[in-house]
Amino acid sequence: MPELPEVENFRKYFEGTSLGQKIVDIEIDDPKLVKVPSDEFLQTLKGASFLSTDRIGKFFFARTSGEKVVVFHFGLTGKFHYFRDGDPPRFTRVLFHFDNGFKLSFINMRKFGWVDLTEDITDYQNRRGLGPDAQKISFEEFFDKFRKRKSILKPKLLDQKLMAGVGNWIADEILYQSRLHPESLIENLSDEDFKTIYEKMQHILDIAVKEEADFDRFPDYFFIHHRKDDGFCHHTGDAVVKIEVGGRGTYFSPNYQVKK
Fold it and tell me: Is the pTM of this model over 0.85?
């Protein structure tokens, strides 16, 4: 599933290809994947241009010269493809035609992604119950949202209402690099623990975005290289263990990550 780093790179790809482009036509392969009626979608966007972009967690927004903002959610298999000649890529669900002769495909093989319209990004964020973006949140806001919680740590890192964009592997990576057991209780964490969690989260997201979410290019000390059933801790050499925390499969290193 595209996580925050992948969606951020989709955003950069979109900016490098489709900003300033005037939409002259739209083909919708599957109307069920567009959250508004097809006629409304076409009438709203035809003749408009894409002006700027934004991202909150895994949600991508493209502002237009019209009154609406286009919302993309990529589901499990979504991505963009910008091209000029030939047929659209397989599994293209929405195809934007631009006045420069190029096209932008919204590809979604398994149909879990979708497209929507909104008038205001902040209003949309509030209606969806999304917290601030994990890569953009300040330490002060992060600390304020988490410090008074009485809960197991990992499920709250995954809670999109508190902070948008942390997926399962990212949460495990944050906890590993912070040396914290995933079942640690938030009320037992020190201020220094919160600072470490925040700094590691930013480091992980920055690296993941920089390396275009290509795990093979991540540093050797990243847990993602060892996060598997037959994995071994980079620091201790001990076997990695898998448990279930908050209903999610969770990998950790018992002799490296401290339970608080």
Answer: yes
Report yes or no: 188 and 260 within 8 Å, Cβ to Cβ. Answer: yes
| Domain 4-128 homologous superfamily, CATH | MutM-like, N-terminal (3.20.190.10)
Q: Where do the structural domains in the chain lie, given as residue ranges?
A: 4-128, 139-252
Provide mean pLDDT across the span 98-114.
95
Full DSSP string of 195-216: HHHHHHHHHHHHHHHHTTT-GG
Q: Residues 18-21: contacts with CB within 8 Å, 24+ apart?
A: 18/50, 18/62, 18/82, 18/96, 18/98, 18/104, 19/50, 19/51, 19/52, 19/53, 20/49, 20/50, 20/51, 21/49, 21/50, 21/96, 21/98, 21/99, 21/100, 21/102, 21/104
**165 token code pair:** 């964009």
**What fold characterizes domain 139-252?**
Helicase, Ruva Protein; domain 3 (1.10.8)
H-type alpha helices, 68-167 = 121-128, 139-146, 153-157
pLDDT over 80 (residue 1): no
